[in-house]
Every structure is written in C-alpha cells, then in structure tokens.
Amino acid sequence: MTQHHNLIGGEWTPGASHAPNTNPSDLADVIGEYAQGGADDVQAAVAAATAAFPAWSNSGIQARHDALDKIGNEILARKEELGDLLAREEGKTRPEAIGEVARAGQIFKFFAGECLRLAGETVPSVRPGIGVEITREPIGVVGLITPWNFPIAIPAWKIAPALAFGNCVVLKPADLVPGCAWALAEIIHRSGIPAGVFNLVMGRGRVIGEALVNHPGVAAISFTGSVGVGRGIAEACVKSGKKVQLEMGGKNPQVVLDDADLQQAVELSAQSGFYSTGQRCTASSRLIVTDAIYPAFVEALRARLARIKVGDARAAGTDMGPVVSQAQLEQDLAYVEIAKAEGARLAAGGERVACHTGSGRQGFFLAPTLFVDTAPGMRINREEVFGPVASVIRVKDYEEALAVANDTPFGLSAGIATTSLKHATHFKRHSQAGMVMVNLPTAGVDYHVPFGGRKGSSYGPREQGRYAQEFYTTVKTAYTLA
C-alpha cells in the first residue's frame, strides 16, 4: 500500500501514523494510506512558512505569476487523471469530478494574472506638499482548512490567492479526502515555488486544525466547513487577533412560481438538490412552490428523480454517486426519520440502494429522497442535511414564497424559477442570500467572481475573484513629504 507523507519545508515528511483512504463507491478499494500528522508537524510547517515569508513576500510578481500559471497548466493537462482520483475518493461522478479539476486549474491561472494586476492608489494629501500612497501587502502565514465535498477546487481557491499576493501557506485538508490535496501539493512542490512557501499537513481536524488556529505565528485562518466548527474557529481567532474567513452551511431555497417553465424548473431543481449527491453548500434542499403549479411540479420531479441512476461514481451512466462516508449516510437517514416523525410525506427515495451497474460493490448509496407537504418550521427545512434529500413547501403566492425563502438562519444561495421579469428583479434585490440565481440551479458558480453568503453561511471577506484580495492582503497608507 502506497504511503503519502506531509509536505513540510519542501520535504516529504512521514506522520506519526498513516490512515487508509477508502472509495465510498467500493468499500473494498483502498486508494492509499495518508499521513496523520500531529501538533509537532504544524509547528514545523508554520516555522518553515515563517522562514520562507520574507523572500516570497518580496519576490517579483513575474516569478509568482509563472509559478501559479505552471500549476494551473499541469492541473488542466491532468484533469482526467485527477478527476478519476477525485471521483474515486469523494464519490462525485467522474464528469463532475473532471469539471471540478478543470475549475481548480482555471483558478490558479486566474490568480497568476492577479499577480500582475495588484494595484494601489496615489492621492494628494489635504496638507500641501505631502503625497499619499495606498498599497496592499501580504499578511503572513495563512492557515487553510478545507472540506471534503470539493477536495481540489476549494483548496485551489484558497491556495492560489494566498500565494499570488505573497503569503505563505499551511494547508490542512479534510481527513476524508486527502488524495486530491496530496496530488495538488505534489504539483505545487514541482512548480518552482521555494521550500516552505506551501506546506501540507494532513490529519484529524481536532489535532491539526486546532493547532493551526491556536498557533501565534499564523496571521489568518480561512475555513470552509460546518457551522459549529466555524463558530469555534471565529471565537479563537478573535481572541488571538487573527484575521478570519469562514464559509459554512446553507439551507438554500429554490422558489418555483406559477408562471415558471415546468420542465426547466424541474430540471434545475433536480440539478441543484441531487447532483453531487446533494453534498454542496449551495444545493437547494428547500423547494418553495406556489399553489397552481405545485401538483404538476411534484409529479414531474418525482418522475425526474426516478430516472437518476445511482452508483459507482466512476462508472459510465452514473448520474449520482454515493454519500461520502458511513457517518454522513447515517446522518442523512436520521433526517429521513425525523422528517417522517414530523409529518412530512415521503414522495421518493428514503432508503439505501444498490449500485445501478449491478456490480455487487458495497458502497454508501442512497436514493434521491423527496419529501412533500412540509412546513417551514420542520427540522428538515431548518437544518442542513448535506445529502440527496430535499423537501417541497407549498405557498400561496410570490410574497409568501419570498418570506419563506428568507426565513432561515442561512443565506448562501437562492434561486427562482419564473418568466416574470417583475418577480425576478424583485427577488434578486430582496433575497437575503449572497448569491441569487434566476432560472438556473443554485449550485454552480464561476471562478472569477466573488463567492459567499450572508447570515450564518459566511463570515469575513468574500472568496474568489478580485475580491479575494480583501482577505489575503492588508492595506498600508504611506505619507511622503515632497
């Protein structure tokens, strides 16, 4: 069994132990063994990053551009190979996985360009004979803690801007999906970036994550994951004065109005709620449907879900892969029972299923699950399930639909299906979400524009696009007497 080590100070360093990385589509398939680091590894990685920071932060922008562009080019050239690895370890279908890898490559190439576009301002002072310069500088050593559901894209959209703006990085990937992070680290290692600028420490979140968050040499933490963990990180960072950026949960609404194109509304609801096995923070798990279209929508969506083929993520013809782990499967099934107990009516799914290819492989397969006749106050409509489970809420009209859509502690993404320009325009302005989709799935965003939400979904500056500089740089104002 191949062992994969941590990358610390430019050297591949064994952890105290190694843990197996198992394919959720085929529990007999072990991808490899990956290092389980400890607090000492975090200390060493931060020390290496700290030592590398002075030279890297003052390096030429052309050198940083060339390194990031090289990384992006290799990711794109290997997108099918890396996509197969992603599908194998996370359970996303192979086409989706290849698309995610391509996005990671595009992100690195975009931020290669940002190395050359970082600008400042020169303004006159209110005092005669004095000039004022406003510039951006890197913040130092950045700790990045990433989730399992996008195991290469989310690390990419944190690593690339951090490096582009002159910071040094310690990456702690999700323990469930170390393979993609290791492959990305290996590409970065060969890019020409100096030793210590980028470091990878794999292992348990309670060990590696806590050590990163509490390390006095770490200037900032960017985290994507659960609400509970995110709030704990925010509290610790505020106490120690660290800059913090959090992307957390979602309970995203998809509104379907009476005037919507029925087939379009059904397709975007299926895409949003069930593809990627519903394991996206932008997935629509609350389908808010107005009276006149409700019966036809429910029947058409049930028929659409019946055509979704669940099975091996890497097999041709699979539409939806497995749930990522046994623990996640148990959580999904627990919410199915909670919904039933609260009076929701099960219209589709709700149980484990066999692989559609008939291979006999044992995996964490769950049928696309739909509840109807649900109420906004039910737990199924308040709490993030993070699986292929969605519920339909019936409302009277647009005004009630908007109120129900906004009645959530989250605010990441929201969608509306309508042919009414009036309602679409009003929804874009009054939806309490960071991202709004009109006649599009709620899951699916571009790499060159800001990503983030409101309320309990996000905290701190936006990720991606030019807005990433708000987190990964600090502003300096300098005065000069002429």
TrEMBL record:
InterPro entries: Ald_DH/histidinol_DH, Ald_DH_C, Ald_DH_CS_CYS, Ald_DH_CS_GLU, Ald_DH_N, Aldehyde_DH_dom
Family from the record: Belongs to the aldehyde dehydrogenase family.
Active site (UniProt): 247
Gene Ontology MF term list: 4-(hydroxymethyl)benzenesulfonate dehydrogenase activity; oxidoreductase activity, acting on the aldehyde or oxo group of donors, NAD or NADP as acceptor
Assembly and interaction partners: Homodimer.
SUPFAM superfamilies associated with the record: ALDH-like
Function according to Swiss-Prot or TrEMBL: Involved in the toluene-4-sulfonate degradation pathway. Does not discriminate between the sulfonate and the carboxyl substituents and can also be involved in the p-toluenecarboxylate degradation pathway.
Keywords noted in UniProt: Oxidoreductase
Region Disordered, residue ranges: 1-25
Catalysed reactions, as listed in the record: 4-(hydroxymethyl)benzenesulfonate + NAD(+) = 4-formylbenzenesulfonate + NADH + H(+)
Top-rank taxon: Bacteria
Pfam families assigned to the protein according to its UniProt record, in alphabetical order: Aldedh
Official protein name in the record: 4-(hydroxymethyl)benzenesulfonate dehydrogenase
Top EC class for this record: oxidoreductase
Keyword Flavoprotein among UniProt keywords: no
EC assignment: 1.1.1.257
UniProt keyword Transferase present: no
Gene3D superfamilies: Aldehyde Dehydrogenase, Chain A, domain 1 (3.40.605.10), Aldehyde Dehydrogenase, Chain A, domain 2 (3.40.309.10)
Domain Aldehyde dehydrogenase: start-end pairs: 12-477
